Amino acid sequence: MHALGFWHEQSRPDRDNFVKILKENIIAGKEHNFNKRNSIDSLGSPYDLQSIMHYGGNAFSK
């Protein structure tokens, strides 16, 4: 999916409206996986918690 230009769902600029990232629980050195993009082309699709491009609830957690 990356090769097609898709970003991880939690990188969307509107992600804070849908999920809460607990930065203190992220493994040291893995914080970059949760950086938000300033803008992306979501092709008009709504935020999708079930997307294959969305990390699981415990991804990179301590």
TrEMBL record:
Pfam families, per database record: Astacin
Cofactor remark from the record: Binds 1 zinc ion per subunit.
InterPro entries: MetalloPept_cat_dom_sf, Peptidase_M12A
Gene3D superfamilies found in the cross-reference section: Collagenase (Catalytic Domain)
Superkingdom of the source species: Eukaryota
MF term (GO), any: metal ion binding
Swiss-Prot/TrEMBL GO biological process terms: proteolysis
PANTHER family per the UniProt record, alphabetical: DISCOIDIN, CUB, EGF, LAMININ , AND ZINC METALLOPROTEASE DOMAIN CONTAINING (PTHR10127), METALLOENDOPEPTIDASE (PTHR10127:SF780)
Official protein name in the record: Metalloendopeptidase
Organism name: Ciona savignyi
